[in-house]
Amino acid sequence: GAVIVDELIGKWNANVVLEANGPMSAFVVIDKKSGDVNEVIKHVVQELKLPPSESYGLIFEEPKAFLTPDNLDRISHGFMLTVTAAPSHYVVRLHDALLNRSDFKNVEWALTTLEAFSSDPCFVACFYSLSNIHLLYDLLADDRLEGSQTCLNLCLRSICSMLDLGVQDIGWNTASTILVIKLATLVTGRAKREDSNVVLIALRMIENLLNSDNATIRLLVLEEVPAQTLIRHLEKSDERVALAALSLMNALHEKSDAPAREQIIKHFASMPFRTAVSGSVLREGRGRNAALLCQLVPLQRLLINESTKFLGVPAAESDVDALLLVTENSMRSSAAAWQLIPVWMHCISIVASVLGVIPSEEECVEKLIELLFRCDSSLDSLFAVTVQLFHRTWREMHASHDEHDKVANVVHEQLRRAANHRPTNLNMLEDLLLALPYWKMKELWKRELIEKENNQLGSELVERVL
């Protein structure tokens, strides 16, 4: 492959002065098996006629990293590397720029370079030996940093990558309280300015801190970042921010104690949260982000569990015209009439199964997520639809008084099949159920049985041929 000279090598190490007509590139062969990077660098220095008394490094581009025995696997035929000053020269220059801060343009340059190398274990280890991560925490505490959202974003991204690496056991467990408080300020509406990219990285970093093993950090996050302060991020046009906010909301609930969880659920059940979800994340005409929907599912389950905590018979008379149903039912002969309490209990059981309150392989919360968030009283509304469906299916099946279980099984499957179409509102669900009368269900079962038998027959024929 080829090695080219970094034209700015003198900026990192003033002792390296490039000759006016000196070579700027060379072809080299690297033996990946030997892993002797020092010999490779020595050979490159000789070929390019660089001062042999100075220290150098070879760097990859995208992502930037210094060549070491540990990342030789990145070398491939036709590689392109850049010879530059050793990591120590980089760190010294960056440390001075970040420490003095007299010129924030210089700070931005330093942070840009640091962020580019912040995922390189070799560079980060050198940074820790000649400087330290607390220099970045001190920079975060500098009020002037908020004047440049670019610098703030670069600083946070650098810290995030370095803590992710965990070099020298410096990871999320060792984070400073300064970092927690600064991040909380950025996401809870207390910052003077707000930038989507800054909010995005801050939300992700807070979740990492929350998931750390450091109990002190975890408690500080729970104290500084109330879940309700994140609701406003759901209304952002940037879906990445909404996704990060929902993910953090789930994490905050998971890590909180029982009393705090109850308070969080109350905020999730509040009108601001439902409005933010239905009016922005699930807005009509907006494309559906699968990751967003996945984050909404556990939140909806929490709301369902809260609604069913004291479940008896849902007060659905206002939604179902119960009087009409009971009146029509009473006009039938006693052998063909359904009984109110068994029907109510069957419908409760069906709804509980569909919504995962009762553990079931046929839970449909994820498929009904948009509908559930759009209904003010989703449990009661779904119960009302189920009662109406039970009444209609009973009539279509010409069921007798002892066939409640049989009708309930059909109703359950009708709901499950309708949910597969992911209805976004109650009217759509009702239309889907109207398209699945009992005679249609029998046709579907017959067709599926024939397909199953044909598949089995085909499998047997294949086995015989083999």
TrEMBL record:
Q: Which InterPro entries match?
A: ARM-type_fold, ELMO_ARM
User: Which organism is this protein's natural source?
Assistant: Ancylostoma ceylanicum
Q: Which domain of life is it from?
A: Eukaryota
One Pfam family here: ELMO_ARM
Give start and end of each ELMO armadillo-like helical domain.
Answer: 133-280
Q: What is the lineage of its organism?
A: Eukaryota, Metazoa, Ecdysozoa, Nematoda, Chromadorea
Q: What is this protein called?
A: ELMO/CED-12 family protein
